[in-house]
Amino acid sequence: MECAILEIDGSLSVLKKPQYQNTTKQDLTILPSPETKPVELIYDGNILYENLSNHSYDEEWLLAELKKRNFAVFDIAYAVVGTKGNLSIDLFRNQLN
């Protein structure tokens, strides 16, 4: 214990020695990761262009991702980019990728 103070209301406040104090993100100069929300990109076989334009994704990127998986837009019931940037696809034939 570095220091202890008996407060007027009778409580005891204790200041721990530096080696025993809790480390914070600020102490480590770690910047918080930006909060991201899932972005729906395809619904019912149609590209949601408004969602593409409001985020850092574009049609070229989306079509390239679908081509990697051998899918066409009309194959997809639902596609969403998750909070970690991963593209999840639900096909009409009920297969998840």
From TrEMBL:
Lineage: Bacteria, Bacillati, Bacillota, Bacilli, Bacillales
One Pfam family from the record: DUF421
Keywords tagged on the record: Cell membrane, Membrane, Transmembrane, Transmembrane helix
Membrane topology reported for the UniProt record: Multi-pass membrane protein
Domain YetF C-terminal: 2-79
Protein name according to UniProt: DUF421 domain-containing protein
Cell inner membrane is among the record's keywords: no
Species in which this protein is naturally found: Neobacillus pocheonensis
Keyword match Mitochondrion: no
Localization, UniProt: Cell membrane
Principal location: membrane
Entry similarity comment: Belongs to the UPF0702 family.
